[in-house]
Amino acid sequence: MESEDGPKLYYIDPKDVDPKSQKMYFINQRLAKIDHLSECVNLKVLSFRRNLIKKIENLENLKQLRHLELYDNKIRKIE
Questions:
Q1: Nearest by Cα to 26 from 44, 2, 50
Q2: What are the angstrom distances between the C-alpha of 50 and each of 2, 23, 24, 63?
Q3: What number of helices (H) and strands (E) belong to the chain?
Q4: Cα 1 vs. chain centroid, distance in angstroms?
Q5: Do residues 47 and 24 touch, judged by C-beta distance below 8 A?
Q6: Cα separation of 62 and 73, whole Å?
């Protein structure tokens, strides 16, 4: 549902994050930000397809990450 201010945005619920996971998929959840993943050091595959993310951030601790999907988001510039 869209309000006068635009679509309603959601964020990752820490309860949905398993620090032991090697794969996580957050697809079509209207997420606005990448967060709550710093403890997921074993993560190898991460998907944020079809969300509302504008900035690639908070991935520094994911040293094992090999596959990152960010298509169909609101990212305009990679710095």
A1: 50
A2: 16, 17, 14, 24
A3: 0, 5
A4: 21
A5: yes
A6: 20
> Rounded to a whole number, what is the distance in angstroms from the first to the last CA of the chain?
31
Q: What value, to the nearest 5°, has the Cα angle with vertex 16 and ends 71 and 65? A: 50
- Give pTM, 2 decimals: 0.86
Compute the radius of gyration of the chain from its Cα atoms. 13
The pLDDT tens digits for 25-75 are: 999 999 999 999 999 999 999 999 999 999 999 999 999 999 999 999 999
At 6-35, the pLDDT tens digits run 778 899 999 989 999 999 999 999 999 999
Is residue 66 within 8 A of residue 43, CB to CB? The reply is: no
The CB-based long-range contact list for 2-11 (8 Å cut-off, 24+ gap) reads 7/52, 9/52, 11/35
